[in-house]
Amino acid sequence: MNILDTIVAHKRTEVADRKARTSIKELEARPAFALPVRSLSDSLLKPDGTGIIAEFKRKSPSKGFIKQDANVTEITAAYTRYGAACLSVLTDENFFGGSDADLIEARANEVPILRKDFIVDEYQITEAKSIGADVILLIAACLTPAEVKHLAEFAASLGLQTILELHAEEELEHICDATKIVGINNRDLRTFSVDIERSLRMAEKLPADKIKIAESGIDKIDDILIFRQNGFKGFLIGEYFMKQPDTPAAFQIFVEQLKAAE
Description:
It is a single chain. The chain is of the alpha/beta class. 39% of the residues lie in helices and 17% in strands. It has helices at residues 3-21, 24-28, 40-44, 72-81, 100-106, 122-130, 145-157, 198-203, 221-229, 239-242, 247-261, and strands at residues 52-56, 59-60, 64-65, 86-90, 113-116, 135-139, 161-166, 181-185, 211-215, 232-237. Helix 4 crosses helix 5. The termini are far apart.
């Protein structure tokens, strides 16, 4: 099995265990479930916004720990303070060193929050809302088009927005009315190799009414400027900031340079 297959197989087992421990009713009774949902699409479309979806990630399957002792409160507060359009918080523990607790802490910030995880079941979407997420991620590579449609519609019924993540042209068939925000990942989740041109090659094939996001491998201001010229409104960046010795300062400098280049 490749890396993605391994993660998804583990995730299905994990979800079954979570279901056995915590019921849907218990999730719906959590205080965060009743919180108002913040709109990612509105945030990305702000004329003076950065469009940056700044990620909090301790480790990755391919590189191991990036910043093992990273402080989620400090880093997400800095992301918000310096202009992030959204916070992306990894909640997968086994492969990415994340947790639900990280997202719960990040919820103190007044920007939309993406629960970054491998969602394969409705339960995880209810769970996402119960910990304060505003947005979920659906990865086309581990779901059928019918599953994407069903899960995206279910998320919408809870008031949550969805980012549909694509990696290849054959996944374009996963796009549906309920997936208004489409991300194109420059990283192949099966091999973890990065091709920064992936987003640009696929951009022209996306429906005109979708909000386009470029994901992974972005580490230069010029990357964002090129993506913007090609109609992208969002830019998910995680590893670049997290691997810097001072993540808050690195994000602040990056945003200042982006604004100077606009």
